[in-house]
Amino acid sequence: MNILIYTTNSTYTGRNVGGAETSLRLIAEGMAKKGHSVVYLTLDKTLPFGYRTKKINGVTVIFHSSFRSLKSLKESRGIHIDEIENDWLRTLFSEIIIIHDIHLVHTFYELDALKLFIDIRTRLKSFVIVMRMAGLYWYEHIRRDRAALHDYSMVFGAIDSVNFISAGLQDLMAMKERELGCCFRFRHSCVGDIGVIPATGRRWGGWAEEKTMRMITATRFSPYSKRQDLIVEAARLLRGKIPFHLKLIGSGATTEMFRRKIASYGLDDSIEMVPYLKQDELWSEMQHAHLLCHPCDYEGLSKIVMESMSMGLPVLCSNVLAPSSYIEDGVNGYLVENAPERWADKLVELYHKRNEFAAVSENARTFVHQHFNADMNIALYERTFSDLVNGAGLPRTAGQTETDERTGPEDAESFCRVFGITQGDLAINPGFVQNMRFLKFMNKIAWKMIEHRERDLRDLKASYAYRIGNGIVEPVRRLVRFLKQLRSTSDMF
Is the pTM here over 0.70, yes or no? Predict the structure, then answer.
């Protein structure tokens, strides 16, 4: 199979990413080891414009740039950067799908990206779209903007399969659908996650004779879902009851708020805030901690929890979906209700039951290695992807018929007549609007030619349509250079 995995963030860029991105890298490299051709497309904010390709562990990683640096341009000037960025991504996605003859696309539930892939499939080439459901961003989006419900319904209904990373998350989604008064329809669904690499299993160091309980949390600081506030408030209640030291590892939107709160509580000696750590550094912290604390409102399948359990580090997690579907309290981990008082009481209880940690540690290791071993679970993804690509129980996804043979306009005059423009609009000139119109028109032209040349797609590099589509890159580069020049002389920025 030829597989494309797309994420905005990834571990390949070396930036602060979460467990979801770690999982997709494991899937990509696992499928590559199985002999499949895998392309991983991701954003690299350091690129000025365009893209670069690198081979990493058998995976073709394509880093693409963004127009986000140009979003300071005012809409009042007629520069709609989002529209131009979508045109650029559509062209890039199309080029990759054709050149690499992609059979299956696996991506997150990012609305804009899914729309582009669905659009490309109806215009260009038949391929399977698998959406990874790892959390509830869609729910938060709809709560903020009720109009988004229509878009999500259309997109979720058009994809071929949704990959729920846990049964608990699937149940949670059904609950949130009822809250919103809706019911999404999926053509096909599968449940399962890649898990963790067995090498994660450096053994937990255990609990020696020391008195102080060393606790860590490792997750992003987010205004929703993540609940570092519970453990901070619990720490305030623990003062004078048990000796403890807590490390809050991570970064995000609420980092400074927590830093101020900890200082105001006078907990600077007991709570240490640690920025995002590289994987090896984090594992080292986990080996020397006594307990991983993971407070949350909900969770898909927490990678940090899985990694902790794989090395035997006892875990205390909020008793919510989905952690409660794979943690059994007192057996392979611990669960607690989401209230500061309950967290404080539970931590006191665990401190006095620390002699039980060794049994819980071994049970946790056994559970993860049996159910969430990445080397073992890659077979699940291979089988699922293969069934989808081979059309097992799925409707045809191609947008066009194979017998419809048409011809389209070949010369500039005909193009102009079709799209209602002048030949002067096709020229590169130093004006905002003209450059924007050029990109828009050339994109339309590329699509038109692709649409009219279905039978030439196997040899697209030699086709006129490809040359036009690929030719969008240089005009955009010129545009970016022009905007940079303006930035130094204009007051619009």
Answer: yes
